Amino acid sequence: MVDSLVPSLPTLLILRALEEAPAHGYKIVRWIEDRSDHQLLLKEGTLYPTLHQLERQGLIQGHWDQTGSQRRTKIYELTEAGREQLQADRAQWMRRVAIAHEVLWQGGV
Amino acid sequence: MERHAYLEQVTRGLWGRRAARLIQAELYSHLESCTEELIAAGWSSEDAEDEAQRRLGDPRLLASAWRRTYYAPWLNTETGLGLALGLFTGSEPWWMGVTGPWQSAIMTGGILLLALIAFGMIVRQLAQRAWAGAQFSAWSLVSAFWLAAVGTSVLIGAGHPLPPAGLTDWYGPGYIRHLIAAGSLLTGMSGLLFFSGQWALIRQRAGR
């Protein structure tokens, strides 16, 4: 299955965004957009179910906080397990993408 | 669409008012942040609110994504285990003496295996420290099953105080086991019917 060849990119991007600093969902979306020069756009609606899944897997941890406008916001931060998962997935991503690049352009490694 | 109605639609089909409220609060905060940013960029208040909702997405698709996130896992595992345990217990073949020793051993082994898997899942979740609302709901549901089974047993006992044929020990351990088995079987079968219906409903709504 092709999907399992590389780690999920949205998950990888979310974990990477949280590696920078704890953030709420909207901030994560904006961080990815800004850093990719608006080339990588996460579907905002499906971001939250993904965040909840990651939280259930213990890769991130959420806590409620008050924003400047006294609105309750859920802030997520990377757990130690999430940090390890990010490192492993990032390394795997780089390896697989390099191989896929060779296959696509040169016809083989 | 009005914001409250939009958020209600996004969390439609999620059981547990607390979980739905928390998701609504999280999405409300997202919509507010987006709206504020758009207003700062020169949008009118009304247009900004509509645009924020449009960017978040179609509420029916989002509701479907949330249902998949929260319900598929426990419908396939914890609930199934709870109900299967109930049905196994309810079949009470070794208590009634209707099966041979090898059949009894298979049944007992099956129950022990299911119990072991259930225990392993709890330990794994504890180890991951990932006790989100969905896990609580799932295990509350399994606990609710057993409470309902015991309650049903008591009701059966109250409504049918005479021991069944072959059991002469009035309110003895044999009769109590039989009552618990009957309660588990009834609750398990009702639970299976109920969740099959709910699952079909979820699939039907998700397919719209």
Summarize this entry quickly.
The complex is a heterodimer of chains A (109) and B (208). Chain A has helices at 9-20, 25-35, 44-56, 80-106, and strands spanning 60-66, 72-78. With 109 residues, chain A is α+β, with helices and mostly antiparallel strands.
Descriptive tags:
heterodimer, A: 109 residues, alpha+beta, 58% helix, 13% strand, B: 208 residues
Task: Give the proportion of residues in helices of chain A.
Answer: 55-70%
For the record, give the distance between the C-alpha atoms at the N and C termini of chain A, rounded to a whole number.
20 Å
Q: Mean pLDDT of chain A, nearest integer? A: 89
Arithmetic mean of pLDDT of chain B: 70
Spatial extent as radius of gyration of chain B: 24 Å
Unreliable residue runs of chain A: none
| Radius of gyration based on Cα positions of chain A | 16 Å
In terms of DSSP E residues, the strand content of chain A is: 5-15%
Helix content of chain B: over 70%
Helices and strands of chain A, in order, run as HHHEEH
- Assign an overall shape of chain B: elongated
Backbone structural class of chain B: mainly alpha
Please report the two chains with the greatest interface, counting residues with C-beta closer than 8 angstroms to the partner's C-beta. Answer: A-B, 23 and 29 residues
Quaternary structure classification: heterodimer
SSE class of chain A: alpha+beta
Shape of chain A: elongated
How many E strands of chain A?
Answer: 2
Main sheet of chain A? Answer: 2 strands, antiparallel
Notes on the protein architecture:
Chain A is an alpha+beta fold and 109 residues long. Chain A is built from 4 helices and 2 strands; from the N terminus they run αααββα. Chain A has helices at 9-20, 25-35, 44-56, 80-106, and strands at residues 60-66, 72-78. In chain A, strands 1-2 form a two-stranded antiparallel sheet. In chain A, a hairpin with a 5-residue loop joins β1 and β2 (72-78). The longest helix of chain A has 27 residues, at 80-106. Chain A is elongated. The two termini of chain A are 20 Å apart. In chain A, 28% of the residues are buried. Chain B is elongated, with a radius of gyration of 24 Å. Chain B is built from 9 helices and no strands. The longest helix of chain B is centred in the last third of the chain and has 35 residues, at 173-207. The two termini of chain B are 19 Å apart. Chain B is mostly helical. Residues 129-136 of chain B have low confidence and may be disordered. Chain B has helices spanning 3-10, 17-40, 45-56, 59-76, 78-91, 93-96, 101-128, 133-159, 173-207. The chains are: A alpha+beta (109), B mainly alpha (208). The A-B interface holds A 24-27, 43-46, 48-49, 52-53, 55-58, 67, 69, 71-74, 81 and B 22-23, 25-30, 32-34, 36, 55-58, 61-62, 65-66, 68-70, 128-130, 132, 134-135.
